[in-house]
Design a protein that fits this description.
- It is a single chain.
- By secondary structure, the chain is α+β, with helices and mostly antiparallel strands.
- The protein has helices at about 15-25, 65, 135-140, 150-160; strands spanning about 1-10, 40-45, 55-60, 80-85, 100-105, 110-115, 170-175, 175-180, 195-200, 205, 220, 225-230.
- Strands 3-2-4-1-10-9-11 form a 7-stranded antiparallel β-sheet, covered by helices on one side. The protein has a 5-stranded antiparallel β-sheet with strand order 5-6-7-8-12.
- The radius of gyration is 16 Å and the shape is globular.
Length: about 250
């Protein structure tokens, strides 16, 4: 299982990376889940105007606590950043090829970060057995050729996944849009797999845990369950105004 965080607007990349580190080592764990430490690699993606695809990425197989200082992430000047800290569910799925963000190139290049375990989703792709559930989930929930995701279609796809997993919480990003999928299978821990949102005048954060270093707990709100949040990246440079759907 993993931890996710994204920020849009005018924020400090160093503070967001620090928040991800706090989640990765269990400092902010306030849930009933069995996993508090997430040592099996980490990755980040951000909006990058000088990249042909508009997105920069970084991946490292080492724990975030040990390797963040060797990455460019803390020094970034960007209006969109997402970080993933990993705890591999299966021991065999270790290494760079399993480290998020996962990327699928095409007419629209997508990047994907997942928190959860979906060992049955390969069936929705017609595969006889699972090789890596996060990759299979990526290919299923973001159909090839897609440029945007539709909430009702996405939720229908999620509900069509056979029982046996935990969560489909994910961040999916292309050069124009970012999405937060907040969905868990019935019976999964709403405490561990819940997500929270912090809105300020300068930025918005969505994270797997409440991070007191960013704001007191009473400033955070639960992200609606069974939801798809769309973030147009050409508007990520400013935070959402009241009633706006930039982070619906």
């Amino acid at each position: 299982m993993c931890r996710l965080i994204l920020a849009t607007g005018e924020f400090s990349a160093s503070e967001i990376l620090g928040a991800a580190e706090a989640m990765s080592c269990g400092r902010t764990a306030n849930h009933d889940g069995p996993t508090q430490v997430h040592p099996n690699g980490w990755g980040a993606l951000w909006r990058r105007s000088d990249d042909p695809q508009g997105i920069g990425t970084h991946r490292d197989v080492r724990p975030l606590t040990e390797s963040h200082h060797e990455s460019p992430v803390a020094e970034l000047k960007t209006d969109f950043l997402a970080v993933h800290a990993r705890h591999a569910t299966l021991a065999k799925n270790h290494g760079m090829q399993f480290t998020h963000p996962l990327t699928r190139e095409g007419e629209t290049t997508w990047h994907f970060m997942h928190n959860g375990f979906l060992p049955t989703v390969h069936r929705n792709l017609g595969m006889p057995e699972s090789e890596f559930d996060s990759r299979e989930y990526f290919d299923y929930i973001v159909p090839d050729g897609s440029r945007r995701l539709d909430e009702q279609e996405t939720l229908a796809r999620l509900r069509a996944i056979a029982p046996g997993g935990s969560s489909g919480n994910a961040i999916a990003v292309n050069r124009d849009f970012a999405y937060v999928i907040h969905w868990s299978t019935p019976g999964s821990s709403r405490s561990y797999f819940g997500m929270s949102r912090l809105r300020t005048e300068r930025y918005t954060v969505i994270a797997s845990e409440i991070i007191p270093d960013l704001a007191p707990a009473d400033r955070w709100e639960p992200l609606p369950a069974d939801s798809l949040t769309e973030i147009p990246l050409d508007r990520a440079a400013r935070p959402a105004r009241q009633g706006e759907t930039i982070n619906a």
